[in-house]
Specification:
It is a single chain. The chain is of the alpha/beta class. The protein has a domain at 60-368: pyruvate-formate lyase- activating enzyme (Alpha-Beta Horseshoe). The chain has helices spanning 2-30, 44-50, 72-85, 118-133, 157-170, 192-201, 215-220, 227-239, 258-271, 302-318, 335-342, 382-390, 404-419, 424-431, 435-438, 440-445, 447-451, 472-477, 481-485, and strands at residues 89-95, 97-98, 110-111, 141-149, 172-173, 180-185, 205-211, 244-251, 275-280, 322-325, 328-330, 346-348, 351-353, 359-363, 368-370, 374-378, 396-401, 421-423, 455-457, 461-464. Helix 4 (118-133) packs across helix 12 (382-390), helix 5 runs parallel beside helix 6 (192-201) and helix 6 (192-201) packs parallel to helix 8. The longest helix has 29 residues, at 2-30.
Length: 495
């Protein structure tokens, strides 16, 4: 144990020295990233003025519009049409269990130290895989697969093998390592051996939960995780040939300051992830009871929170990362960056994606699917989920079928949030509308954003400027018909 710690310590020291040298000698290279990639400007006054609550647009319509009129039969009809189109597939598996509770968490999870609780759930998940696959053309290739949670590594190696074997039995998985097969990792719940095991199962991407490396912050949110733990896990992923490594961070947590988060960023940059997801903590204890464990007095002020966000942008872009949009940063050679440059970037329930062509099948409790212009969500409790599956029914309990108007607005919002530019002719050609007539009301509402220098608006297009990129949700909200009709405020702040 002592020798292992010594080796880790030496490795960390060497990495710090190497990182410093790389920064010193690579600065000129990093700053030659094309200006259009990091064309982003932090304007504090504008951010304060536009920092409203709004959707994250992982879908349009958003989950707020899902309803119980959408049934299993609606889903099956959508899948039949989807088979006719023969689109590739994306599979999402929800593993809801966590051994420890993180006080900031707003995910659908089950907190338990009893690892045996996963067994009956996994049995039902195996059954659901078979039920779903019975309605899916076997020729359809699974180009994207993701295990999320909860903590997917809560389950044992044998259970992981069983779940992947069952998936391969019923779905057409790629065996040549060309698919994007990813898993969310808690470094506290994974060993070097487990990372190797997951690679053998076919996973080639990992997303590591970090949030913050400051010990005081970690204690305040009940997530104590050393840099050494994380470092060892990330290095193991690299040694096992994973294609991409993502790190999750959260700003706005208790006891965070600009100085403390600067130290966290120092450590994160040592890890050199391919991507980063940086989330704004939304303190909503009335909706998420576990957040009541957080002492509100220790939350950073809105001014400090914005200063931390500004620091994040400055540090990551200076280190060569490209601001993709919303909460995502990526290296210049990452496929997200390339897809954005090529105009093929997409956004779905898993964030930014390069797989716009896929239909998404959600498996497990609370999972969301996107099949042939419909969205659907599975039941939220273990009991109800298990009961439906045992009766031979899918677990779909709500959803929405997109109207013609929804499809047009989804295309507009997706284009803006992924590429910061919208060519009217493209939408007109695809949907046979006259853009300025169809969206006359919306274009009129954008005038303030034009005057504030967030966007330019011509007869042909909308272009989001450097000052507006951080406020892209606001631009998208102008085209959200459902948001305009609703008085409910169920969304996080845009910054």
């Amino acid at each position: 144990m002592c020798n292992t710690y010594l080796y880790i310590t030496i490795g960390l020291l060497f990495t710090r020295i190497l990182t410093a040298l790389l920064i010193q000698y690579s600065y000129e290279f990093l700053t030659v990233v094309p200006a259009m990639q990091n064309n982003i400007e932090f304007d504090l006054d504008l951010i304060k003025r536009y920092d409203l609550s709004g959707p994250r647009y992982t879908s349009y319509p958003t989950a707020v519009q899902f309803n119980h009129h959408f049934t299993e039969s609606d889903y099956l009809a959508a899948m039949a049409a989807s088979n006719q189109a023969n689109r590739p597939l994306s599979l999402y598996f929800h593993v809801p269990f966590c051994a420890h509770v993180c006080y900031y968490c707003a995910c659908n999870k089950i907190i338990t130290a009893n690892r045996k609780r996963a067994a009956p759930y996994l049995a039902h998940l195996h059954q659901e895989i078979a039920l779903q696959a019975a309605h899916v053309d076997k020729s359809r290739v699974v180009t994207q697969l993701h295990w999320g949670g909860g903590t997917p590594t809560f389950i044992s190696d044998d259970e992981m093998s069983g779940l992947m074997d069952c998936t391969r039995q019923h779905f057409n998985l790629l065996d040549d390592d060309t698919g994007d097969y990813s898993i969310e990792i808690d470094p506290r719940e994974v060993t070097v051996a487990k990372i190797g095991h997951l690679r053998k199962l076919g996973f080639n991407r990992m997303s590591f939960g970090v949030q913050d490396f400051d010990p005081l912050v970690q204690q305040s949110v009940n997530r104590v995780q050393s840099f050494s733990q994380t470092y060892v896990a990330v290095m193991a992923a690299r040694d096992n040939g994973y294609h991409s490594i993502n790190v999750d961070l959260i700003y706005g947590l208790p006891h965070q300051s600009v100085a403390s988060f600067a130290q966290t960023l120092d450590k994160v940059l040592e890890l050199s992830p391919d991507r980063l997801s940086v989330f704004n903590y939304a303190h909503l204890p009335e909706l998420f009871k576990v957040q009541k464990q957080i002492d509100e007095q220790h939350l950073p002020s809105p001014a400090v929170k914005l200063a931390i966000f500004q620091l994040i942008i400055e540090r990551l872009t200076a280190a060569g990362y490209v601001y993709i949009g919303m909460d995502h940063f990526a290296k210049p050679d990452n496929e997200l960056t390339i897809a954005q440059q090529q105009g093929s970037l997409y956004r779905n329930f898993q964030g930014y994606s390069t797989h716009a062509e896929c239909d998404l099948i959600g498996l497990g409790i609370t999972s969301i699917g996107m099949v042939n212009d419909t969205y659907s969500q599975n039941l939220k409790t273990l009991e109800a989920y298990g009961e439906h599956i045992e009766q031979g029914h899918l677990a779909v309990y709500r959803g929405v079928a997109l109207t013609a108007d929804d499809k047009i607005r989804r295309a507009v919002i997706t284009q803006l949030i992924c590429h910061f530019e919208l060519d009217f002719a493209q939408i007109e050609q695809q949907y046979q509308i006259i853009f300025k007539d169809y969206f006359a009301y919306e274009l009129n509402t954008l005038k303030d954003m034009v005057n504030d220098g967030l966007i330019t608006l011509t007869e042909q297009k909308i272009t989001v400027l450097a000052r507006g990129r951080l406020l892209i949700r606001n631009v998208c909200m102008a085209f959200d018909w459902h948001l305009r009709q609703s008085q409910e405020k169920k969304f996080s702040k845009v910054i």
